[in-house]
Amino acid sequence: MKFKALIVEDEMLSRNFLSNLVREFCPQLELAGIVSNVADAVRFINTQSPQLVFLDIEMQTGTGFDVLKQTHHHDFHVIFTTAFDHYAIQAIKFSAVDYLLKPINLEELEQAVDKAIKQITGRQEDNRLELLLKNLHRPAGDDFCISLSTSEGVDFIPLSIIIRLEAKGPYTTFYLKDGRQIMVSRNLKEYEISLQEHGFFRIHNSYMINLKDVKRWVKTDGGYAVMSDDAMVAISPKKKDEFMALMTKRMV
Hints:
alpha/beta; Rossmann fold; CATH 2.40.50.1020; 2 domains; five-stranded parallel β-sheet; five-stranded antiparallel β-sheet; 8 helices; 17 strands; elongated; DNA-binding; phosphoprotein; Sig_transdc_resp-reg_receiver
């Protein structure tokens, strides 16, 4: 089975280079279309329903985000392409959407395509594009949001209201400032990768905390942090020095 792909790229050399790579090295894909502007990309996606879109961020007619805003649905996977470290890369990373820096590396292309195909064949609920658009258009001063999928639906939670995370086997429980507890079926390690750049710290094998919500740091009894919800979270001996350095930096 082949998966229908679309390339959206307005620069001819980059367009030809990527299309040649896809045709020669990505046999899982059927390159169904190559377009060079926002309007044609929106039209193709709305009428042809590709499963994977290679989407240039900056085009003369607009941006890849304009394409996403104008399409009727988001049930396709996106791999962004960009020639430089674009201002939106942080939002793209946080939303777990893949991107490739130009000139495109063959190994990175193959890895991104393999990952996309696993997502497509897994038939799992995918709200990454909605999360990306939400993070890109958040009001000035607002924090990023994270999507938490449960059996009841998907919650988009601002990072600023997360106090701590607790691992329970393959599950992770989020403790929020409004008193809610949300359990999701993903392990803590997956969240550690995306949250550690946003003021969160893996203080223990079973816990990750928002450093801004540490109310008290107790050095006795092995060491623990008292959080804003009065929870006492043990500090792993291996993490103690790093935690002390981070808290000292916060107090400066």
